[in-house]
Amino acid sequence: MALVRKALPSDKDSLIPLLEGYRSFYKQEANPEKSAAFLTERLAARDSIIFVAEDEGKLLGFMQLYPSFSTVSLERVWILNDLFVAATARSQGIGQSLLRAAQDFCREQGAKGLALETGVENPAQKLYESLGWEKDTHCFHYFWKASAK
Known about the structure:
β2 (49-55) and β3 (58-70) form a beta hairpin. α1 packs across α2 (32-45). The protein has a single domain (3-130), classed as 3-Layer(aba) Sandwich (Aminopeptidase), CATH 3.40.630.30. It is α+β, with helices and mostly antiparallel strands. The protein has helices at 12-25, 32-45, 94-108, 125-130, and strands spanning 3-6, 49-55, 58-70, 75-85, 113-115. It contains four helices and five strands; from the N terminus they run βααβββαβα. The mean pLDDT is 93.
């Protein structure tokens, strides 16, 4: 059974292949150097919370949460931005364990809840819904992309 815990700076090198696998899933070009720099910055700045699933010293999956706030409810919310389980470790309950850890963390922090967005084809939707996540059907999400400098 995998142990879910907060990532440590010493986990960076083991996280890089998982982050690259996650990026590949979303059709991004491999860039281990940039992934390493990104992880180093997140872990040093502590501007996100990274959870890892570990079994016998090997990282099998990760999840990254970013803090945000709701002005309407006047409460903190967490954005579940990334969730990935290595292909060799899927169907073992690791994704579920990571999501439950996020829910527990959210409760411990006294936050309103967790938000996430995912691709419409992502099969993980069934997992989210089985753990009480509700699909947003009452609002649209927009994104503005800054042009290259």
